[in-house]
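idk why but the lab printer keeps eating my pages so im just putting this in chat instead. protein + adenine:
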Amino acid sequence: MSDCELPSTFEGEVDLGVIGGTGLYHLPCLEKIAVLPPMATPWGYTSSPITISKFIGANGHLHVAFLARHGLDHQLPPTKVPFRANIAALKHLKCKAVLSFSAVGSLQESIKPRDFVLPQQLIDRTKGIRESSYLNEEGLVGHVGFGDPFSESFAKYIYQFRDVLTNEGKPCTLHFDKDKTVVCMEGPQFSTRAESRMYRLLGGDVINMSVIPEAKLARECELPYQMVCMSTDYDAWREDEEPVTVEVVLGHLVNNGRNANALASSVIEAMSHNMPEFMKTGDGLRGSVKMSISTKPEAMSQETLEKLKFLFPDYW
Ligand SMILES: CSC[C@H]1O[C@H](OP(=O)(O)O)[C@H](O)[C@@H]1O
Ligand SMILES: Nc1ncnc2[nH]cnc12
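predcted complex ->
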């Protein structure tokens, strides 16, 4: 069935949100049951339509929502992605976790192009020009914890399926430990060699232009969030090699896309049989945002309350 023959509304609750990055504008493992047009939220429209899929498992079913971070035609540069709308839409659809994919440069010899990484830490090197909070305006002040920006429970869940990654007969590793760190730069230009070397000194393992503010906004929505970083290049730090270009990145997108699909498919199938605990219980984040808001509800304007209700209909 073509997309335009599918329903453009969906009444149920979504369980898992999936965000595709560069080269990942859909996942073949997702058989669509509805295609929602770009969703209007109090923070603007989502980057792309949102496709809804349903998976029947042994003990229930799982609804998955997918959106393409840069739009279906890759028309949005990293600085202009409507991150707030994207995460708000997934929250509004009642997602219980977000699985995000991103093409990254490698800052370590051991992380080869086509390897995948589940980072547990990040360094924000964006320039403060992205809207990166729902709780940063006059009349609404909130400070959520962000010491552990990713969901370790979710990362462990994904890591179970590391053996599905392949690379034309060569080894292909899913790297995962608690120190793996993604650096987020503003772009759109890639880093200089000096910057790339500096990120290595700072402890960076991979680099992209999109984990900030996506991870921050997921935290402000109490959503367990894990990014799967898909390595495409060695950035600019290797003395004897040309610095990264888009051509180099493109050369790895097909293999990475196939692996992303295999990994997502395994994760989704397992979730459809039994929803993992971190999704059932909220991974320790439930209630955290209500606690972190300093502004008294009586002092909030109707407009502010309505925005908050879009995300948390039960809190205020
Ligand atoms: C085309 S390489 C730079 C581009 O790739 C990554 O995008 P995404 O994270 O959406 O996969 C990186 O963050 C840059 O936006
Ligand atoms: N070297 C790099 N720097 C920033 N973002 C990237 N995405 C893919 N490769 C990248």
